[in-house]
Amino acid sequence: MSNPEDYDKLTKEERETRDKEARAREIAEQAALPYTWRQELGELDITVPIPKGTRSRDLTVIIARKKLSVGLKGKDKIMDGELCKEIKVDESTWTIEDQESILIHLEKVNKQQWWENVLTHHPKIDTTKIQPENGKLSDLDGETRAMVEKMMFDQQQKQLGKPTSDEMKKMEALEKFKAAHPELDFSNAKIS
C-alpha cells in the first residue's frame, strides 16, 4: 500500500474500496500458501495438509525459537524459514490429524502482538485490520453488552435503510410532542 498520507486524503468511499482491494489481495496471497493459519494475541495455530496416510515417522518437523521447518522425509520442505516473531519452544507442539494434516500450535513470547505472517519471507497481512475472535455477548458486563447490542442494531438498521435507535427515539419524542400540542401546525416543519 502507498504511504499513509495518501490514504488520509482519500474519501471514505475510496478508503473502503482500497481496503476491500487490499483485503482481497491478502486473502488470495494467504490462500496460495501451503498451509492455513489463525492467531490470537498469545498463540498461533497452523494447519499443513499432507498426503493421506502420512505418519509421524514420515515427517521432519523442527520447531525452534525463531525457526519452523516442516517436510516429508526425502522430499522438499513444505514450509521452512524464519518465524515472524519468537515463540516459546517448550510450550509449542505439533500433531497429525486424521493422517492428512499437521496441526502446529505455537505459543508467542510476546502475547500482546499480532503477527503479520508466519514465516518472514511469506506475504504479510494487515494487522491493523485484525478483529479479535468474537467473544460471546454474554461474557460482557451489562453496560458494554448494551452498547455493543445497540451498535449492532444501528448498523443493521442502516444497512436496511431504516432509522437507528437514536433516530427512532427522536421521532417518538416528536410524536409525543405533537400529540400534546394539537394546536401547533407541523406540516411544513423540517426535522433534523
Automatic annotation (TrEMBL):
Keyword Transcription regulation: no
Sorted UniProt keywords: Cytoplasm
Subcellular location: Cytoplasm
Residue ranges of coiled coil: none
Annotated region described as Disordered, given as residue ranges: 1-23
GO molecular function ontology, one term from the record: unfolded protein binding
InterPro entries given in the database record: CS_dom (IPR007052), HSP20-like_chaperone (IPR008978), NudC_fam (IPR037898)
Signal peptide start and end residues: none
Annotated GO CC locations: cytoplasm
The name this protein goes by in its record: Nuclear movement protein nudC
Organism name: Jaapia argillacea MUCL 33604
